[in-house]
Amino acid sequence: MRHGGDVIAELTADHREVEGLFKKFENTPPGSADRKRLVDALTIELVRHSVAEEEHLYPAVREHLEGGDALADKELADHFRIEKLLDDLQKREADDLDFDRLVVKLRTEVAGHISEEENDLFAQLRKGVHPYVLEELGDKVRQAKKSAPTRPHPDAPSTPPVNKLLAPGLGLVDRVRDYVSGRGQ
Fold it and tell me: How far apart are the C-alpha atoms of 80 and 72, rounded to whole Å?
């Protein structure tokens, strides 16, 4: 979770972590408890990442990039689809018939989102936003991930200011639930 660097480096490091978790999932026997633990780890990472982007990256995209509103809205729509899939997966065990199918669908959505961010959005940010602002955003994203929820909340607001007010409370409740259940450990 602690990568460092500007917002682009931070989020790219998150992307590599997620890709690594998907690879581990592929190499784990179908129906095993390890698959459920890997999906829990994926969920934790993806939710933290998404919340931090929604709190800090997408408002900056709206502010600094031409056509930023449309770009941010598209990214938020991606997040919503991913969060709904994560929510569905949380309700299933690794040996459920739909479990692997949902993970494949999740991986497809996440891979598309990562590709668009890294090949388009990040290039626009690098070109159109001062490096100091990108560094500052990297710090804000790292801070946000520390208190972000660890479980999907697809019906929670995804835009400021309401998301910034609710996320730390949801995060606290999620971390207590994780501690009590042993999830993510």
Answer: 12
What are the C-alpha distances in Å from 6 to residues 9, 85, 148, 181?
5, 29, 19, 34
Tokens of residue 14, six digits? 């998150």
Question: 61, exposed or middle or buried, with CB in 10 Å at 0-12, 13-18, 19+?
Answer: buried
Give how far Cα 141 sits from Cα of 25, 149, 183, Å. Answer: 26, 13, 23
The tokens describing 69, both together, are 């509103």
* pTM given for the model: 0.94
**CA–CA gap between residue 107 and residue 84 (Å, rounded):** 13
Q: What is the pLDDT along the chain (185 residues), one digit of tens a residue?
A: 457 799 999 999 999 999 999 999 999 999 999 999 999 999 999 999 999 999 999 999 999 999 999 999 999 999 999 999 999 999 999 999 999 999 999 999 999 999 999 999 999 999 999 999 999 999 999 999 999 999 999 888 888 888 888 888 898 898 888 889 899 88
Structure tokens, 89: 């997966």
Answer left, alpha or beta for residue 184, where phi above 0 means left and psi between -120 and 50 means alpha.
left
Cis geometry, peptide bond prior to residue 157 (ω within 30 degrees of 0) = no
